[in-house]
């Protein structure tokens, strides 16, 4: 049951009207604030600061034309990153990047390793290696930034990797062209080899024919030589006849000289004539046999000469064919060797599979996380526990009554009046905090070693939020609860922690440092993620200040209420006397 105080009605009508208007537009405020805070999601990512460290070392390679070419793939990657949408890149060195990540000035570090270009160049060798890019995040600053960085990094490596693979395939096509040239040379050598083999075959045929002709001629020569025996016989007969003639002439020579008309001389002369006839006959035979023998010899010699000529003619193509055969074989060997050199080798099937996987994914991404929050539920709980305590404090003052008129009109001090109501509200909010801490450790699975920190911080939040809501009620009456809902809508859209504050629109980033939930979420998130104790201490002092200031303002508001109540009582008494 609520308590109302006598007031000057004209002065409070406008507050009632404002309260009705606020209630009417409250749903619109929630929706509009969320839409305005989200804004353009793509441009929001562009505002998230990320450090970019390029440790790549340039490499030199020799082109097929023999020219040296400088390869600095890391610089090309940095250009691709900074020129495209996604994150606010800050190019720096490793040491400064680590310091910035620890302070929370950046949410992630993307590092290009020293061997990046070397790994890219290795793709065209027999032992390719993957180039690895690393992303380092810190969950104590923002949970979702690590996931976003991983998605953006993976997308980047996939895009750049596809470009590298495309260049590699272009190189394969170029190598295939060179291989085709080498095999073309090998084909030319094979053609010459075939031509040489043809000429060799022709030469061998001519050579065989020449050998056959030579053999035939030698056979004829042998046959002619066998006829030379007839020449020997004829010559012998001729010699015998001549000898006989000589003997006869020798016998008749004295008689011829004595008497020429002697009949016996005639007989002798007749014998001479006969001998001469016989010699003549033997000479004819000798002539015939000699002619036959000589003819056979001449024919054999002619055949031998013809065979030798054909043999000589066959030896020319044979020599040419042999030379072409040798030249073609050398060219074929050279072409095949060049072709083999252009084909990458692998020791075994495993190497081939590994190389194929490397070429398909030339760039990989490794992600390391400092102060990692392993469970998404834990990260989300750090946001909803402060939210629950805020709503819990609001609900408490929907139930609790304001200080009674008797207490306000009493002589009790203002602080005592405030404490009387605030203690009752705090008891309820403390119970709420304990229940939420138990939920955090039992259901969500947060390590019990963190229970003292989570419980202490949750109790601090509960007391601070109770004091703040007491102030709203004391200063604005029930309208203060409507203001609490408006503040809740603003805080839900302006509080970081789970997500980077830079992802919000500029006006919400500006008001975020002045909102209670900002420090509540940051402190609880830092405790769960194991981040810097300084952040949790800062958040605790901010909540403590909120509670102290709220109590002080509540005392001041109660003082005004008591003054207003006294004024209302005087006016009421004056009206009664007037009647």
TrEMBL record:
| SUPFAM superfamilies (alphabetical) | Methyl-accepting chemotaxis protein (MCP) signaling domain
Q: Which UniProt keywords apply?
A: Membrane, Transmembrane, Transmembrane helix
Q: Any one cellular component term from GO for this entry? A: membrane
* Transmembrane segments annotated in the record for this chain: 383-405, 417-444, 450-473, 480-501, 536-558
Q: How does it sit in the membrane?
A: Multi-pass membrane protein
User: Domain of life here?
Assistant: Bacteria
Gene3D superfamilies hit by this protein: abc type-2 transporter like domain
> Which GO MF terms are attached to this record?
ABC-type transporter activity
In this chain the ABC-2 type transporter transmembrane domain maps to: 22-555
Task: Give the principal location in a single coarse category.
Answer: membrane
Q: Pfam families, from UniProt?
A: ABC2_membrane_3
Cell location: Membrane
Q: Which NCBIfam families does the UniProt record give?
A: pip_yhgE_Cterm (TIGR03062), pip_yhgE_Nterm (TIGR03061), xxxLxxG_by_4 (TIGR03057)
What is the name attached to this protein's record?
Answer: Putative membrane protein
Its source organism is: Salinibacterium amurskyense
């Amino acid at each position: 049951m609520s308590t109302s105080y006598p007031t000057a009605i004209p002065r409070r009508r406008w507050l009632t009207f404002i309260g009705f208007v606020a209630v009417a537009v409250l749903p619109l405020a929630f929706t509009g604030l969320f839409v305005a805070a989200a804004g353009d999601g793509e441009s929001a990512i562009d505002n998230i600061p990320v450090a970019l460290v390029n440790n790549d070392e340039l490499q030199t390679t020799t082109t097929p034309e023999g020219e040296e070419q400088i390869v600095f793939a890391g610089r090309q990657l940095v250009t691709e990153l900074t020129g495209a949408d996604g994150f606010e890149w800050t190019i720096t060195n490793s040491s400064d990047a680590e310091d910035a990540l620890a302070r929370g000035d950046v949410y992630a570090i993307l590092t290009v390793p020293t061997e990046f270009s070397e790994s890219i160049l290795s793709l065209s060798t027999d032992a390719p290696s993957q180039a690895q890019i690393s992303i380092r995040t810190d969950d104590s600053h923002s949970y979702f930034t690590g996931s976003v960085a991983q998605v953006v990094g993976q997308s980047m490596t996939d895009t750049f990797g596809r470009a590298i693979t495309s260049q590699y395939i272009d190189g394969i096509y170029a190598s295939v062209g060179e291989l085709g040239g080498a095999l073309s040379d090998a084909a030319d050598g094979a053609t010459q080899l075939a031509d040489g083999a043809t000429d060799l075959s022709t030469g061998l045929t001519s050579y065989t024919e020449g050998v056959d002709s030579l053999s035939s001629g030698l056979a004829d020569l042998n046959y002619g030589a066998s006829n030379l025996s007839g020449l020997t016989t004829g010559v012998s007969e001729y010699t015998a006849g001549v000898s006989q003639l000589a003997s006869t002439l020798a016998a008749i020579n004295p008689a011829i000289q004595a008497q020429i008309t002697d009949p016996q001389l005639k007989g002798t002369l007749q014998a001479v004539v006969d001998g001469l006839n016989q010699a003549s006959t033997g000479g004819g035979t000798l002539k015939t046999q000699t002619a036959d023998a000589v003819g056979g010899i001449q024919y054999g010699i002619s055949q031998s000469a013809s065979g030798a000529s054909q043999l000589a003619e066959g030896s020319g193509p044979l020599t040419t064919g042999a030379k072409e055969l040798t030249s073609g074989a050398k060219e074929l060997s050279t072409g095949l060797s060049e072709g083999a050199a252009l084909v990458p080798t692998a020791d075994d099937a495993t190497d081939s599979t590994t190389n194929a996987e490397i070429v398909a994914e030339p760039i990989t991404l490794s992600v390391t996380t400092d102060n990692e929050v392993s469970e998404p539920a834990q990260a989300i709980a750090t946001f909803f526990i402060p939210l629950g305590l805020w709503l819990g404090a609001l609900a408490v003052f929907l139930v609790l009554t304001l200080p009674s008129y008797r207490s306000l009109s009493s002589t009790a001090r203002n602080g005592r009046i405030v404490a009387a109501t605030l203690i009752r509200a705090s008891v309820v909010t403390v119970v709420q905090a304990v229940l939420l801490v138990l939920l955090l450790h039992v259901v969500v699975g947060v390590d019990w070693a963190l229970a003292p920190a989570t419980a202490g911080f949750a109790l601090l939040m509960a007391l601070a939020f109770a004091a703040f809501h007491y102030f709203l009620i004391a200063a604005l009456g029930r309208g203060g609860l409507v203001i609490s809902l408006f503040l809740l809508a603003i805080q839900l859209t302006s509080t970081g922690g789970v997500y980077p504050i830079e992802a919000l629109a500029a006006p919400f980033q500006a008001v975020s440092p002045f909102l209670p939930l900002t420090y509540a979420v940051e402190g609880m998130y830092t405790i769960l993620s194991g981040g810097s104790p300084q952040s949790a201490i800062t958040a605790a002092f901010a909540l403590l200040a909120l509670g102290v200031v709220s109590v002080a303002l509540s005392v001041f508001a109660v003082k005004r209420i008591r003054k207003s109540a006294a004024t209302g009582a005087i006016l009421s008494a004056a009206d009664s006397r007037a009647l």
